[in-house]
Predict the 3D structure of the following.
Amino acid sequence: MEDCKKSPSDSLSCTDAIVLRLSESDPLFDKKKKLLQSKGYDVEVHIQLKNASHPKWARTTAEAMLQISRIMHLDEAELYFREDDSCSPMGYYTQKNELEALNSMLSLVNSSFLDDTCSHKDVLQDLREATMQLICDFGDKNITESTVINSQNCDKENYLLQWGEKSGVKNRLQIAHIKGFGRGAIAVTDLKVGDVALEIPVSAIISEDAMKNTDMFPALEKVDGISTETMLLLWSMKERFNSSSTFKDYFDTLPEEFNTGLSFSINAIVALDGTLLLEELIQAKEHLRNQYDELFPALCEDHPDIFPPELYTWEQFLWACELWYSNSMKIQFADGALKTCLIPIAGFLNHSLYPHITQYGKVDSATNTLKFRMSRPCHAGEQCYLSYGNFSSSHLITFYGFMPQMDNPYDIIELDIDGSQDVCSDEYDASSGTTHMVRGTWFSDNHSIFHYGLPAPLLNHFRRAREDILDADSPLLEKLKIEIEILEDLSLTFSGMMENLGEVDSESRENMDWDVKLAEEYKNLQRRIISSILSSCYAGRKLVEDELCKSLAKDDGSPC
Ligand SMILES: C[S@@+](CC[C@H](N)C(=O)[O-])C[C@H]1O[C@@H](n2cnc3c(N)ncnc32)[C@H](O)[C@@H]1O
């Protein structure tokens, strides 16, 4: 799941201003700086509280802060696909970016509020309300379908909740079986922005500390080059069968099979022919098999009492890999240490592109607990979602075994084009030197001529490649001809990709095994993305040809 990330903005508060500041340690600092500057902002923006003069100040200021905060929270792909001229002042990049941007504003306002030196509490209160209102307005525009919930009896899960209560867990979630999700967490009461849905004491978190107190640790320490994560994984393979484990109730809730891409059958792998996921899965599995072969049977032979061979088979190793990939979280502890952990109860939270909880990776040093705070409201009875990260469907299939139901803006196809030559001089230089990519063109609002719903950095890359035959003063006619060439080249590339995917499987999904079904769904998604690009190229070509025709008619007076 998602790493605990340092916020891209180091924002400050002071007595009479709120300061939004882009952190210099942000790996995308230069690109974001240019984007901010192109919109008339600096990397540090002071919001003067004493300027709050008119009744609409709070709302207008919150909206302006949001524009800045959005940019500060963009990731690489969001930055690449941003659309300047189509983005209305209140248009958002992705739902996750919007929530992060709004919540970081809220925490900034809240921390100013707690600052005793601040003499503008009434203004801050208005700003807080305006920000909360923006979160609610955004929620109203993005209503997620209510999920059919089957609240069956969950004995093992209930034991775990009881164990949690005894261990000091504070919980406002109930566990239920949800169609299409396995188990999930449901809000017991209405949860507001900022409410803590779940609070787990550090003592109830499974981290390397549990493993370091066992007789396994001294043996593992001697293994050359072994990582702490691998030690922990090997520990969990045995601990799951330990009837006196502190975490027995947690291990009892884990499934016998995880059904991630790592356990795809050969039929599912074959079904992925023509997709990049095929290669990704094969490589991931090969990597794990090599890792297993490096450790076993050697460890079992050297320490049969610590590593009983029947617990350390390849199948059990793969199960543990799937457990850690699909359920672990990277947590920053109070001493600053970053550790990969399993978190009982929090492990029931499913992923969404429009999550309720976005920031959860840092232990609160005052309480020594991990808090799962709401970034948007969740009504009683609704499923409460987490964000596992900005992952593509191929990553989610490989390591989690599912594909999001909503359109995923992180489903990108990277193109084998060298972008390092893109030394920038135009308005799109924020993306120079990056990998070029495409995604479903339905995400774009701008399908007009010279845009076509395709990413500007990609189009500009191709335009630059033809710079020797074109300059800024070239006649429109020449420019249009080049546009046609670019669209033709793109059509050719993507037609080839489409052909590689082969015919659509006509077999009914009902009769397919889970993995073949998932593989087919993934392949259909790839077809849909490529088809949208081909349609955009086709429609774009028509637009350019019409323009070309008009331009020729103007030049020689003939009718178009
Ligand atoms: C951390 S666990 C969440 C709890 C899990 N549903 C269970 O029953 O134990 C992660 C797993 O939940 C499932 N999952 C998470 N988000 C999902 C989603 N949006 N759609 C379908 N399955 C999801 C996947 O099987 C994933 O590997």
Q: What stands out?
A: Residues 412-556 form one domain. The two ends are 57 Å apart (CA to CA).
